[in-house]
Design goal:
Number of helices: 9
Strand order of the largest sheet: 2-4-6-5
Shape: globular
InterPro entries: MeTrfase_7, SAM-dependent_MTases_sf
Largest sheet: 4 strands, mixed
Order of helices and strands: EHHEEHEHHHEHHHE
GO molecular function: methyltransferase activity
Pfam family, one: Methyltransf_7
CATH topology: Rossmann fold
Number of strands: 6
Family: Belongs to the methyltransferase superfamily. Type-7 methyltransferase family.
């Protein structure tokens, strides 16, 4: 899996559709609703949306007063090519994500994220008027938290183990796993601050890490979260491995619920969302 990738959510209104399984996104936005209201309380505005990649220009130059992005920027524009070089330390053999891999792999992901964010900031800087604002919500974690403590790590680990189990059973080829990498990245305030400063088009008005789940919601329910992951990842798994193995993959991962729950106990579940308000210079 290399080059540019597309990753649509599951459509329709079936059991595994985005429309039936987006409660976590709603809860995540609700956490920062008051912060969003505070940020936009002063600029009357018209709302507009257009199709296209947010890593390129979408609107006319200097036409936007307020830009809003919710849970989109965790998707990289492409899988870093270095991950597929089997002659280097950055070959991500047998692993599907940086949170369960070496520091060298994580650095490759971080470098791709930095490139993507610079492209994103430049495109938005062309579209947003001077003094205009941009509100970003994305997966994130507090400074100092290790990649292995990312609350998504137990799920990526379980998916990875399920795929390796299927290799042993001859259901998929080893090469298919070696060439598959999820193009997802979560950032921290410190990392994001450096990227904003380096780009130079925006000032940070507000930035903080918040919990995506209500405090009275109880412990994470792994089967429900796995359904949420299926909504977002089924398309990309299908594109690489084919549709015939998807049900088996998610069923095997569901059977690892106890292991996932145990790993979640040591993950950083209290801060899993980065809220950022930027002002165009």
């Amino acid at each position: 899996m290399s080059g540019d990738v597309e990753f649509p959510m599951n459509g329709g209104d079936g059991a595994n559709s985005y429309s039936k399984n987006s409660r976590y996104q709603v809860e995540a936005v609700n956490v920062v609703t008051e912060m969003i209201k505070e940020a936009i309380a002063k600029k009357q505005y018209f709302a507009a949306g257009v199709p296209g990649s947010f890593y390129g220009r979408l609107f006319p130059k200097s036409s936007i007063h307020l830009m809003y992005s919710s849970f989109a920027l965790q998707w990289l524009s492409k899988v870093p090519e270095e991950l597929l070089d089997n002659g280097s330390l950055t070959w991500n053999k047998g692993k599907i994500h940086y949170t369960i891999a070496s520091k060298e792999i994580a650095d490759v992901y971080a470098a791709q994220f930095a490139k993507d964010m610079d492209t994103f900031f430049n495109a938005r800087a062309d579209e947003i008027i001077v003094g205009g604002m941009m509100i970003l919500i994305m997966p994130g974690f507090a400074d100092g938290v290790q990649y292995s403590q990312d609350p998504s790590c137990p799920f990526f680990y379980a998916f990875n183990q399920s795929l390796l189990d299927m290799v042993k059973l001859g259901m998929i080829n080893e090469d298919e796993v070696d060439s598959f990498n999820l193009p997802l990245y979560a950032t921290s305030p410190k990392e994001m601050a450096k990227l904003v400063e380096r780009n130079g088009c925006f000032n940070i008005e507000r930035m903080e890490v918040s919990n995506t789940r209500p405090q009275n919601d109880g412990p994470p329910i792994v089967p429900a979260i796995l359904t949420h992951y299926r909504v977002g990842l089924e398309g990309i798994f299908t594109k690489h491995f084919g549709s015939k193995i998807v049900d088996e993959l998610f069923e095997r991962t569901l059977n690892k619920s106890a292991e996932i729950s145990s790993m979640l106990e040591s993950s950083c579940v209290e801060g899993a969302q980065l809220f950022l308000v930027l002002k165009r210079k």
